[in-house]
Each structure stands twice: as structure tokens, then as C-alpha cells.
User: Which sequence fits this backbone?
């Protein structure tokens, strides 16, 4: 079988001994990514097959998509060496990167005719003049993979279901084999043994294995349960998975014998570049469950943070007394803020996880008694370095926070308000930026499957975000609380606990890893053991005392041991005989137990549904705090053997059909529907979409162009400048500003607001921001003003505790948890609402859901003004080098570079930086013209 990329004699050359450590810098991001499963990739044989635009396509050429940097995520050793030495790119490795980046400066002159200058044509099929290659994978007669010339996307067509899924697996391996291999090892907590002991790799495997410490038996049990509980569809899913895995393994065998497998296997010592000795392990179905566990943990597991919530509540009560402290805490928590932007805005209420009238079972820790449960033991060699231990600390805090990175958005408008009378949608997952990308594009056509779109690599037996014949769908992370923390009372010793009155031993789950230097990662040899103590109420995450009793705090999520179940929902979404309208769409996504907001559009209707297995809690249990591990406080009808329970019915999940418009940017779903993460208040990045789409709908005649423009404009907006800075300036300008430094800063900030409050280049490619000084000043001012505004009133302990619940700031140049900086996504978490409500209160404006007391200047306008001017002067005096101190990507003081998006390397191929956009990674623009 001819390989996809041509080999040269360089494929057999030994790599340099000091090969750049691409994995060491990149693997820190190995798992940040986005929403749902993989997509298949293609092959290249001889051009020959002719495929016309499909007759089953009802989009009329008005469906588009984009996924940077490019479809091809595999590179041979020769191609990696050429890229590292000369910057040359393998075919289709970055041909969507420039197209994607150019929208930031090109959207102002956009027209419908120009949309595909910035997106791919997402029509079904490949015109005969655009066929680049065809192949019959492994010589099979029941499947063909056609790749198009423009982007190299695989279009898989099968005459049998098995052949179709075999082709999907084969194409996925062609485009993402190395990445898929990395992910299956991450999911098993074995990344360092596979890819090297870099501190970033250590942190990644620790972060994910802590919350999903599955044994091989656990992974197989998930498959068995998913199949057994879903009838014929479960059996079909198992057949699809087996065919998909067979396709992956067929490519592994072909590329190994042909010596065109990914060069990272050579560089990490799994293969010998000269003799070809060594093996690439075959995939098995449980590998896909391990992959799904990682994706589910990243994007679909809202909740957690109950222990941090308890700590901040205790700090508030210590500061103000129990009654007032509780009021202060609740005002900052903003469970159901009346000013929060909503996705379902028709006034309907969907109560979930609200504060109970009579709290029961609360198990708050004794002050100062909480310690996080150690994960890593028996460190040797480089595992004991300071960088390794720091990576472990970061992994622990990231794994235990409720501030899940959502990073996706959607704009959907009903046909009642469009120029054509057909609905329009611009939506996609914001999953970070990697090389290769975590998601893949593909088209799959076969018996019972008809779809094109994106999937997470290694899970692309179905399209997970994309389009069918006459409908499109997408998702954003929702974050409602499906994770609870239980206080298990210890008995006998630290590793036994009371379960229903019986002293019960915890299960000890261990993963031992070791590594040695390779060409890819020169980290010195080392090893450690990861150890999790598991109870019937989930893994132990903290130790503490409650009323003097020793307890372990465990976390239990409804999707624990159930990551494989969601395969049925995705299977339904790909089935044209199942999804024929908005009700069918809602029914399909009800089978997905991850916490997502799902959006739908066809030629006549739009729809929305919030998915996830929301547990039915016992009466009086407050989801915000730990509760006692006792029968009275368990989920209704919970079975610890299977982790099944009663879940809220679909009608109680936020849902809607044909609302005038929908927006989502990980904001609050609906009235009275409480999400686990903090920050759903008066100012949220969802407002950037809400304000623009609401204005478009009010004017009517919305087009694809106008909706794309609204998205692109919001993507460049600084949320603080657009929605909070004007009120800050009102306070500052309440009297004449006489200080020259402050006056100059106010002038620059005011001009920036008048200019539109964007972080955008002066001209395309200038790498210099318009209003650069104003941007620098606000970036420096925000943390200073927040601290000066709130710390005196809250006190240091409570201010710090609230900061652990909700970060102060998330500007484009800030770090973003496991993604690091340069991640694109920004302004999801911050104290924007607190500042907004507090400043408006000082100004005497009406505030719904105000904070329990006023903080800026103790409520005095003049005192508040003094605080703002003092911190503004301090910020104005900070140099660019102080505000943007530089990192491994940028020199100190380079503002544009500090914001820039970097395709974080997960393999050997590197790409250039692009200008900042706060935008989905994979994105669709759709407007269907007809329906079946």
C-alpha cells in the first residue's frame, strides 16, 4: 500500500544527538483540548476516483468550516528534521492556519461570497476536479478514502458498515497516529514512560489520572456496560469500535513495514531509525475509553471545588460572623445572579443545584485542617527536581478546581430574523491550539452514517461536531455540577472508612512510571509511583477533620466509570434516519452524559439542549459543599457497584426550540440553573455575543456575513474595556483629573473605548496593536485596582480564598491552566462582575443582585476615586517589559507576542504564531436552503 507521504533517504538517517526538545515544551499541553471525539484522516495513492458534490447535501453550498493548523498531523522523521532545520511543512500540515488567522483583520470587508476565503467549503463530497488522491485502505473493496486538493480532508465512503468504520480508523491513523498514541497513554497515566519524563509530561499524567484512576478491568467494564445497556445500538457501537480499531492497526502495520510511520517513534526510542527495530503497539477498544476519559475530564465534567468553597465560606464567616459572612459568600458566589446573561432567555426556569431552604448533611472542615491527598510517591532521579515537584503542584490545583476551561461559543439565529428566512449558525468548540490539532476533520458516508465535521483524534468512528445531510450541530462546555464531595469518616487507620456503618478498606490503585533520556526529551532518568486511594464514593482528594473527626474527602462524578456511554448519542447524531428535526436532535444528545450545551440548525428550525447526567440529590443537600458519606445524603437510588443513580429528566434540563436567537460562551444556561464554576454574574464574556446578536436580531435580515462579523468582532474585544472600564472612568472623571500621569492614562483609555475596545493590529501583519498604550495600562491596572478595591474590606484571608474560587483576571497574555499562555481563549474567569457591581453601587446606579456590602472606598465615591487614580498612576508607570515579562515564546515587552496564539507542539512539527483571537478552534458557518 503506497504511503501517504513520499519517503526519501533522509527517512533512514540517524537523528542529531541534540534534537530540539519538542516534546518537552509541547507535552505540557498534551491534553487541553476541546469538545468531543476524533476525526479520520486520509491517504494518498494515485489520483483517480471521481466524486461529485453529493445529492444528499441540502446546504446549497452554504456550509463552511475551518480547523487550524491543518489536516495532516503525521510527519516522517525526514519531514520533522526538515521542519526543524528549515521550517518546511509537510503537505496540508498548516494550510488552514493562515486562512483562520486572516479573519481577524479581514472580517470588516467580509461578504457572503468571501466567506470561503476564511473557511473551507464543507459541502459533502469532492468535485472531480478537486480530487487529490484515492485509496482502498488495506486493499478493501468496501471502502474508499478520497482526499481533496485544498485541505487534504479525508472523505470516507463505505458500502458496508464495517468497511466504513475501518476506513475511518485507517484515515485517523494516517493523520493523527502519534497524537492518538500520546492520548491513550495519558488516559492510563503512562505518558512519561511512553514519551519522556519532562516535568510537563509528569504534570499532565498526574492531572488526569488523579480523577480517573482506571484499571484495565475498569475500562473493559465501561465497554461492557455501554453495550449491554443500549440494545441494538450498543451492539452496533461495539462493531463500529472493533472495525475502527482494526483500521488503525492496519495502518500501523502498513506504515511500519513501509517505514513511513510518524518520526516521533524514532525520536522517542520506540523505533530505530536505521534498522527499523522496535514496535508500535496495536490499539485495542479499551484505548478508546482511556482517550474518552481524558476528553470527558477536560470538557464534559462540570463540578468539583466543594472543599475550596467550604474554605472560603469559613473565611467569610470568620471575617464577618456566620450570618453576614454567609451573605457575603453568597453574593460573591452568584449562584443565580439576576443580571447574568442566559442562553435560554424566554423566562422559563430550570431549577438545579440551587441553595436548599434547609441544608442537611453538610460536612465543613475544621479551620486549617485541610490537606490535599498526595498522588506521587517514591520519586527517584529527575522526578525529584524542583520543576517536577512544581508541575505536580500545578496538576493538583488544576485537577481539583471547579473552574473548568470551557472555551467554546455559539451564535444561532432563527430564520424569522434572517434575510433568507432560513436559520443561520456560527459555532464551534474552542479547544486550544496544538500541532497537530486535537480535533480532526473528516466526512463519513456509509450505511447508517452521513456526516462531515470534527472529532477528537482516536475517537473518530463518528463525527462529533459537524453537519449531517440537512442539519448541523455543535457544543459548548456547560459546567453544571455533576461532581459531589463526600466526607468519609475514617476508622482503624487512614486507609479504612465507614461505609454504611461497616469499617471498609480503601482500594489502592497504583501506576509506576520510569523514563530515560531520548533524542526527543533529554530529561534525566527518573521514576515515581502514582497512588490513588479509592472508595465507593470515589477517589480520595483531601484529608481533614470535621468536628474533630478524621475524614477523607472524596469526589464522585456521575460520568465516573461511564465515559463510554456517550458513544450512543454520537452514533445517533451521525444517523440520517434518526435525526430528521430538532426533537430528534434533542433526543440524540440526551444520550450524552458529558456536561455540554448543544446547538442545532436546519433550514427551518433551531434548537438547544443541555446534556449531562445530573444526579438527583437528597433533600437538603447543598451541591456547593462537602456532605457526609451517609445513606441519607447519597444520590437517589445510587448503586456504588456501577455508579448508577437517578438523574433529572430531560424536561428539567435547559432546552428550547426556535427561540429568536441563542448565544453561548460558557455562560449561564437558564434562570435558576446553577453551574459549578464561579463568575456567572453581570459581566461575562457571553455578553460580548449577546450584545451583538441581540442588535442584529432587532434590525432583522441577518446574513451569514453579519453573524460571522459579530463573532469576529467579539473575538477581538477586551471584555474589561468594553463592559467595565466605562464605569471605572465615570468614577475617575467624577472630578477633574489634575495629576498629569493619571490624566494622560485616562485620555488613552477613553480613546481606546471610543475606538471599540479591541485588541487588534494596526494593519494586518504589523504585530503592533492599535491603542497599545491603553491596552498596556489596563493589563497592568486590573490586578492592582481589584486588590486595592476589595482586599481592605475582605481582609487578606478571605480575599485569597475568593481568589482560589475565581481567578482575578484572564487576559490573553495570562496563563490558562494546563494550556499555558498563548492559548487564544480569554476572559472566561475573572472578577469583572464584582468590580462592575461594586463600582455601579458606588455611582448610585441600580444594581440587581448587588454584593452584600460596598468595597471600593467603603462606598464613598471620593475615596473610591482616590483608590482608582492611585492604582492607575502605578499602572501607567509600569513599562511594557514589566507588564509582559517574556516567556519561552516571546521577549520581554513584546505586547503582541505576549497575546499571540501558539500552536503548541505535541509532535515534531512547528508552526508560526498568529495574532490573538478569542474564537473557536474548529468553527462552522451554516445556512441550509432545504430539508429532506
Assistant:
Amino acid at each position: 500500500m503506497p504511503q501517504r507521504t513520499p519517503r526519501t533517504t533522509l527517512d533512514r538517517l540517524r537523528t542529531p544527538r541534540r534534537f530540539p526538545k519538542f516534546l518537552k515544551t509541547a507535552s505540557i499541553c498534551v491534553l487541553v483540548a476541546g469538545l468531543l471525539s476524533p476525526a479520520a484522516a486520509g491517504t494518498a495513492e494515485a489520483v483517480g476516483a471521481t466524486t461529485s458534490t453529493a445529492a444528499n447535501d441540502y446546504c446549497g453550498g452554504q456550509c463552511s468550516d475551518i480547523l487550524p493548523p491543518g489536516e495532516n498531523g503525521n510527519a516522517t522523521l525526514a519531514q520533522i528534521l526538515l521542519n526543524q532545520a528549515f521550517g518546511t511543512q509537510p503537505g496540508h500540515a498548516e494550510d488552514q492556519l493562515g486562512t483562520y488567522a486572516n479573519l481577524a483583520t479581514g472580517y470588516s470587508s467580509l461578504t457572503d461570497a468571501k466567506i470561503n476565503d476564511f473557511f473551507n467549503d464543507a459541502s459533502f463530497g469532492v468535485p472531480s476536479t478537486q480530487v487529490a488522491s484515492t485509496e482502498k485502505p488495506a486493499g478493501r473493496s468496501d471502502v474508499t478514502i478520497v482526499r481533496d486538493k485544498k485541505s487534504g480532508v479525508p472523505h470516507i465512503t463505505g458500502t458496508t458498515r464495517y468497511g466504513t468504520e475501518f476506513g475511518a480508523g485507517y484515515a485517523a491513523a494516517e493523520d493523527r497516529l502519534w497524537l492518538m498514541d500520546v492520548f491513550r497513554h495519558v488516559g492510563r497515566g503512562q505518558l512519561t514512560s511512553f514519551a519522556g519524563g519532562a516535568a510537563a509530561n509528569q504534570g499532565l499524567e498526574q492531572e488526569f489520572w488523579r480523577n480517573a484512576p482506571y484499571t484495565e478491568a475498569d475500562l473493559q467494564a465501561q465497554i461492557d456496560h455501554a453495550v449491554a445497556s443500549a440494545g441494538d445500538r450498543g451492539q452496533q457501537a461495539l462493531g463500529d469500535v472493533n472495525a475502527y480499531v482494526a483500521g488503525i492497526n492496519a495502518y500501523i502495520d502498513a506504515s511500519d513495514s513501509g517505514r513511513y510511520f510518524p518520526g516521533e517513534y524514532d525520536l522517542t526510542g520506540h523505533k530505530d531509525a536505521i534498522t527499523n527495530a522496535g514496535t508500535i503497539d496495536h490499539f485495542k477498544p479499551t484505548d478508546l475509553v482511556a482517550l474518552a476519559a481524558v476528553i470527558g475530564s477536560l470538557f464534559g465534567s462540570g463540578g468539583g471545588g466543594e472543599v475550596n468553597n467550604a474554605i472560603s465560606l469559613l473565611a467569610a464567616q470568620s471575617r464577618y460572623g456566620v450570618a453576614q459572612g454567609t451573605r457575603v459568600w453568597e453574593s460573591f458566589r452568584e449562584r443565580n445572579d439576576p443580571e447574568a446573561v442566559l442562553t435560554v432567555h424566554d423566562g422559563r426556569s430550570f431549577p438545579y443545584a440551587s441553595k436548599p431552604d434547609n441544608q442537611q448533611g453538610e460536612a465543613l472542615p475544621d479551620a486549617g485542617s485541610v490537606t490535599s491527598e498526595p498522588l506521587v510517591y517514591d520519586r527517584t532521579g529527575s522526578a525529584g527536581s524542583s520543576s517536577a515537584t512544581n508541575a505536580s503542584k500545578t496538576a493538583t490545583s488544576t485537577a481539583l478546581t471547579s473552574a473548568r476551561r470551557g472555551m467554546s461559543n455559539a451564535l444561532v439565529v432563527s430564520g424569522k430574523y434572517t434575510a433568507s428566512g432560513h436559520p443561520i449558525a456560527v459555532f464551534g468548540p474552542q479547544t486550544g491550539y496544538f500541532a497537530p490539532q486535537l480535533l480532526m476533520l473528516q466526512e463519513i458516508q456509509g450505511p447508517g452514517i452521513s456526516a462531515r465535521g470534527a472529532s477528537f483524534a482516536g475517537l473518530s468512528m463518528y463525527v462529533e461536531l459537524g453537519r449531517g445531510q440537512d442539519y448541523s450541530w455543535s457544543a459548548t462546555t456547560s459546567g453544571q455540577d455533576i461532581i459531589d464531595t463526600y466526607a468519609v469518616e475514617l476508622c482503624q487507620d487512614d486507609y479504612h472508612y465507614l461505609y454504611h456503618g461497616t469499617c471498609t478498606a480503601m482500594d489502592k490503585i497504583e501506576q509506576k512510571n520510569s523514563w530515560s533520556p531520548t533524542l526527543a526529551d533529554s530529561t534525566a532518568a527518573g521514576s515515581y509511583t502514582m497512588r490513588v486511594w479509592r472508595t465507593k464514593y470515589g477517589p480520595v482528594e483531601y484529608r481533614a477533620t470535621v468536628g474533630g473527626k478524621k475524614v477523607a474527602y472524596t469526589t464522585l462524578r456521575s460520568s465516573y466509570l461511564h465515559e463510554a456511554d456517550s458513544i450512543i448519542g454520537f452514533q445517533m447524531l451521525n444517523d440520517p434516519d434518526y435525526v430528521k428535526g430538532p426533537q430528534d436532535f434533542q433526543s440524540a444528545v440526551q444520550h450524552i452524559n458529558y456536561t455540554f450545551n448543544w446547538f442545532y440548525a436546519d433550514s427551518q428550525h433551531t434548537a438547544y439542549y443541555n446534556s449531562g447526567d445530573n444526579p438527583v440529590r437528597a433533600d437538603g443537600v447543598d451541591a456547593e459543599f462537602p456532605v457526609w458519606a451517609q445513606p441519607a445524603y447519597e444520590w437517589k437510588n445510587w448503586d456504588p457497584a456501577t455508579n448508577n443513580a437517578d438523574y433529572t429528566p430531560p424536561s428539567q434540563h435547559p432546552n428550547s426550540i426556535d427561540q429568536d436567537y441563542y448565544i453561548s460562551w460558557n455562560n449561564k444556561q437558564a434562570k435558576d440553573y446553577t453551574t459549578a464554576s464561579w463568575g456567572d454574574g453581570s459581566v461575562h464574556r457571553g455578553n460580548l455575543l449577546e450584545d451583538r446578536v441581540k442588535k442584529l436580531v432587532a434590525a432583522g435580515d441577518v446574513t451569514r456575513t453579519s453573524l460571522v462579523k459579530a463573532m469576529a468582532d467579539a473575538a477581538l474585544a477586551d471584555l474589561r474595556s468594553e463592559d467595565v472600564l466605562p464605569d471605572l472612568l465615570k468614577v475617575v472623571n467624577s472630578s477633574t483629573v489634575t495629576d498629569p500621569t493619571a490624566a494622560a492614562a485616562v485620555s488613552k483609555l477613553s480613546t481606546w473605548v471610543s475606538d471599540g475596545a479591541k485588541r487588534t493590529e494596526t494593519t494586518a501583519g504589523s504585530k503592533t496593536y492599535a491603542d497599545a498604550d491603553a491596552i498596556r495600562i489596563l493589563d497592568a491596572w486590573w490586578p492592582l485596582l481589584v486588590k486595592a478595591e476589595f482586599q481592605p474590606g475582605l481582609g487578606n484571608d478571605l480575599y485569597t480564598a475568593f481568589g482560589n474560587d475565581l481567578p482575578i483576571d484572564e487576559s490573553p497574555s495570562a496563563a490558562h491552566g494546563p494550556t499555558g499562555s498563548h492559548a487564544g481563549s480569554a476572559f472566561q474567569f475573572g472578577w469583572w462582575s464584582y468590580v462592575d457591581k461594586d463600582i455601579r453601587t458606588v455611582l448610585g446606579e441600580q444594581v440587581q443582585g448587588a454584593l452584600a456590602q460596598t468595597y471600593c472606598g467603603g462606598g464613598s465615591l471620593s475615596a473610591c476615586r482616590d483608590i482608582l487614580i492611585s492604582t492607575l498612576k502605578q499602572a501607567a508607570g509600569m513599562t511594557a517589559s514589566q507588564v509582559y515579562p517574556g516567556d519561552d515564546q516571546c521577549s520581554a515587552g513584546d505586547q503582541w507576542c505576549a497575546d499571540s496564539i501558539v500552536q503548541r507542539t505535541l509532535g515534531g512539527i512547528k508552526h508560526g504564531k498568529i495574532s490573538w483571537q478569542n474564537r473557536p478552534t474548529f468553527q462552522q458557518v451554516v445556512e441550509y436552503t432545504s430539508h429532506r
The chain has a mean pLDDT of 93. The radius of gyration is 27 Å. Residues 509 and 804 are 29 Å apart (CA to CA). The chain is about 35% helix and 15% strand.
